Amino acid sequence: MTDQIDRPIEEQPFSTVFAYALQGHPCAVWGVEDAPEHLPVEAWTRSADEHDHAILDHCEGPTLDIGCGPGRMTAALLERGVLALGIDVVEEAVGQTVERGGAALQRDVFDTLPGEGRWSSVLLADGNVGIGGDPVPLLRRVRELLDPRGRVVVEVAAPGVPHRTSWASIEAAGLRSRPFRWSVVGLDDIGDIAERAGLRVSESALHGERWCVVLEVAE
Questions:
Q1: pTM for the complete prediction?
Q2: I need a labelling partner for 211 at 20 to 30 A (CA). Which of 14, 53, 127, 128 fits?
Q3: Please, what are the domains in the chain?
């Protein structure tokens, strides 16, 4: 765990603190960088913008949105007439997704999920390839969820950003979460990580300042 996390006497579950952030309280994340950073929750609670839609253009067919947050991507897919389901561990996030008109379940990606092995696309937007702090087992799990002919749409960090894993914590509304593991994966490293998970990079694209790759099952 990094020295930057100066814990209060009593830490709260991640879901509790992130719920306050989704409700509009300013939120900071500790441990990912050398100093605390603003967590851009406001970018996730707004409607999907042109760059979100450009990323969604890579999704084909029924799509599972992992770590859907407040649901802007799930809702945008449904507005396109695409069958989409969001999953998130935070109850507030699931509730906000449903309020937007999206479909969502409060589930961990490693839980049993609807449509296992039949999803045409799986979406990991907003750096969610870092969930759990180890992208290889995460992508192996995603491969289990995916139709063998399907694709994984992954938003990654920019070229030159090294792959790193750290203990992180978030703060909002005067509360700090318990530390959790998180990974940052950049464009330079996603190919090797995908290969270890039985996937390959078939496409990469820059949308605004956001990098996106498409992964397919390796033959």
A1: 0.93
A2: 14
A3: 48-163+184-217 (3.40.50.150)
